[in-house]
Design goal:
elongated, PaaI family thioesterase, single chain, 7 strands, alpha+beta, seven-stranded mixed β-sheet, Thiol Ester Dehydrase, Chain A, about 160 residues
Length: about 160
């Protein structure tokens, strides 16, 4: 990892504070059921539980034999949010400063039919732009954890504002 910035310690209780923010102040992420699992050391881990409201159902409305796959935009959102979250410790105030996505690239690897879990890692934290890479995994019908999407994001970092 290359950085122009040094990461700050993530204040105790930050994961809970961010989860509370998503649950009470961010209607879209709350609707998705996003969960913050880990934050710090240039890494963020987040998840979204499998819910039928997030799936691609066939136009016929016919029930499928197994689980319907999760719509790809859900995985893309997880890449975006987890990628930005991993950069938060590089902001002057990890809980109050902001960042904005300036580029997002997502490659879909296979359908997701279970809970989604994203592990984001900071690639670079520069003076005003940070880059993260994210692997989203999901449990397959046979119980294995497989990558379903891989993405990178570039984010504008707004510190001390």
């Amino acid at each position: 990892m290359v950085t122009d910035r040094e990461p700050h310690d993530v204040p105790e209780g930050s994961v809970d504070a961010l989860q509370h923010y998503f649950d009470t102040q961010h209607e879209f992420l709350s609707w998705l059921g996003i969960e913050v699992e880990q934050l710090g050391d240039g890494k963020a881990v987040m998840s979204i539980p499998y819910q039928t409201k997030l799936t691609n159902k066939p136009p016929s409305g016919q029930e499928s034999e197994g689980r319907d796959p999760i719509q790809g935009g859900v995985a893309s959102t997880l890449v975006d949010v987890a990628g930005g979250m991993a950069l938060r410790p590089y902001l002057d105030d990890p809980l109050e400063d902001s960042l904005a996505t300036i580029n997002l690239n997502v490659n879909y690897l296979r359908p997701a039919t279970g809970d989604l879990r994203a592990e984001a890692q900071v690639v670079r934290a520069g003076g005003s732009v940070g880059v993260s890479e994210v692997l989203v995994t999901s449990e397959t019908p046979d119980g294995a954890e497989e990558g379903i999407a891989y993405g990178t994001g570039a984010f504008r970092l707004f510190s001390g504002r």
